[in-house]
Amino acid sequence: MPRNMSLKPVGTLSEKADLSSPPSLPDRLLDRWLAWRDGLTGSRTFRRWAAAFPLTRPIAQRRARGLFDLVAGFVYSQILLACVRVRLFDLLAQEPQTLAMLAPRLGLTEDAAQRLLAAAVSLKLVEKRSRGRYGLGPLGAPLVGDAAITSMVEHHAELYVDLADPVALLRGEARTSALAQYWPYAAADAPDALGTERVSPYSALMSASQTLVSDEVLEAYSFDKHRRLLDVGGGEGTFLSAVAARAPHLQLVLFDLPAVAERARVKFAEQGLSERTTTCGGSFFSDPLPTGCDLISLVRVIFDHDDARALTILKAVRRALPDDGTLLLTEPMSGTPGAEAMGDAYFGFYLLAMGKGRSRSAAQLTGLLHASGFGEVRLLRNHMPLQTQLIVARPALA
Q: pTM to 2 decimals?
């Protein structure tokens, strides 16, 4: 795959299948094959045979495991949450410990601690060590001291409330939304009027989780050729702080809701960045963005909004950019090869619960960018597209 690639918009979010013309011969053959396959794999007799036959047994076992993991996924997530809340990974990072040592430190009986440890071992969060001790597993070790991941694990308690009745959520029948309350700007008519007490929880979470994205952006994109960066929806300034360390020549501007921008100003001052940073409070739906920047970033902003609002934001960015300026847009995208479940399942339902957002593919974002006055659009390759992908766009010239 090339370092970057130009994108063309493919379809629209409201596109419907065209059933007016008869299917082609290849389509008919494929449909027949898939119908035969579905009937076969849906047969209990065939599944029993496949599980017994040596050549098909590994496939049958893998698919059975995959289906059971879908059924049990919520339980696995709750086990992870329990490990985070009792600080199991932090304790094991100190040294491997026995059940008798761990139980009182976890605040659990030995029976409860043994149940949690056995579950964590099965999920590769913890592993057994010599002399009856337990240590960190390959999936537990990365969580030690990582506020980005652990904050999201804790935050999922709100998501689970909204997903208690997923059909009601899909039909718009859910009476309340925990995520909508957590992200108040998503439903607020005047988000710029929100006070500090309303913005503090989500602002802190975004700040904690931003490092996952910042690392990916800094590895994939060079800021050397730019002189002034505006981060729209920049939160508490975590992304700009990371850029500041990598590009010491760069002047930095942050635009967010007034209460959030004030939190960023204080943090910049604490980091000794006051002379290099400017914070501006407002709403990108009603206030013009600051001008004079040759680079504007949108970091996990567009997927929080429906198409109409996304277009409003992108058009505001285009107006603020000079004709030779650059837009850097980064967020998790649907249809990402190898991360389809993250973009389409996880973020698809997370943003539905939040009330306003939508997970989009790179091609769909390209269509929005073209409609907003951007011409050249490129998708950059990065190391962990599971966490985010990056698009670079430049204004279309008349």
A: 0.77
